[in-house]
Amino acid sequence: MGTVHKLVCVKKVKQNAAEEWNESMPLPGDIIEGVAAKEGEDEYYIPAKARSELSSSLGKLSKSVLEVGGTAWVKIRRGDATLKLRVYVVQERSSKFQRRFTIRAASDDRHVAVLGNLTYEQCSQLQELSRKVVNTEERGLSKKEVKYDWKKVVGNYLPDQRSTVISSVLFMPLAGEHRVEATTARCMAWFSAAISSGVPLIFVNIQTEQIITSERTTSGGDACWAMQQSYTTTIATAQGVRLWFLPGVAEMSVVLRPERGETRFGMDIKRTEEGFICIYTVAKRTAADRAGLRHLHEQARESGQLLVLSRLEGKSLVPSTVSSTGLIQCCDNAEVKDFLASAINNMDLIHLHVMTWPNFKASTAASQVTGIDTIKPPQEGPRPVPMSSVSRINSRRGLLRDQNQPIASDCPGNWCT
């Protein structure tokens, strides 16, 4: 296997506000091709073959650039264009035992570049992030904004407006995961474990997702200058993996209607190891039983599956994120219990969605099924162009308070209380 070719690139910049970046500054992803003491023809530029060689060239230029106003010039490759930027040569503060040099923007002394040897693919990914930050307009035909009746479309094309049909979970890389394959493996292991435990999920898509993180540091001088502190924000990126899935064949909408004298809806819930909220018992002659949940629970139990709650009052109950520490961000089942207890005290109706398997059959006409197969155009009027992909349906975040809760490994069976 051959060695991977590396390029000298701006890995990140130290700047207190990314919105102040502009195209005249060295930006993350810029490929540095050479440096020179003054602007001129390409032969004046010293080639940048590696990070260490570039630092050495900058050190040699640091004396001569003082003669021309203290600035130097760098030739960079940004996308398909080659640019020449005026910069200052500065010494890296982190290099205490060895003098290393880098560059900063001529227009802003806070905008200091952190250089590194990266692959062309890594440089391209950073350039795309920089392009979004500085809002570079792409060339092409002029754009026009048109009105769209979103309320009407949602009402006509979604059988139940409380359901977005599709969900996703974002997996952040762990501290030791430097390759996207490792994060993807964890993602698919979680998905397989959830299905094996009886959660009705259907795989839709998987994609990588660039995540921008920032760390703000404060620096100051002596105590007498304490009021003149400066702030520096270090911008870094990580590559996460987002898994898109459907809730089994469909989501079934169920309405719990309490009657006078009832003190509970008649169902008990627990959370699986993968972070899903499940119904594990339904009492007879209760609001949950009248809504058909006992019938659905019996069907699921006979087939060795779980009856999973996907939404409560339209708010998502499914896991949303797996953090870089491995914790699953999911809905707190204790909070769901408190919400149900408050509703029964006030005799309020409760709207639930449960995930259904292919053999599920509703026992009440009041139950409404929402799934990708039920998304159809209105009965009257012209038929629009059909959706070409499930991924066009945007996932809406749940409004219930999510908590970063560790999923205990010593829970009995598939349950976490």
Automatic annotation (TrEMBL):
Organism: Stephania yunnanensis
Domain of life: Eukaryota
Name of the protein in question: Plant regulator RWP-RK
